[in-house]
Design goal:
Elements (H helix, E strand, L loop, with lengths): L4 H11 L4 H8 L3 H8 L10 H7 L4 H4 L5
Helix pairs in contact: 2-3
Length: 68
Amino acid sequence: MNYSIGQNIKSDRKQLGLTQEELASQLFVTAQAVSKWKSDAGMPDTAQIVPLAKTLNISTDALFNEFF
């Protein structure tokens, strides 16, 4: 099954028990930005990829798993 980056963000965030607001706060972005990412309406800025992966305790490869 192919997962989008948004599905990976949503799944990994939920596994950590983080709300969208908590993830957004840790990354210094808005909850609306996280909502767009998880619904695939937008992509994280390239500067956010490494901090996002670290916050989710996954590698950047896992973040993009089966996305490309």
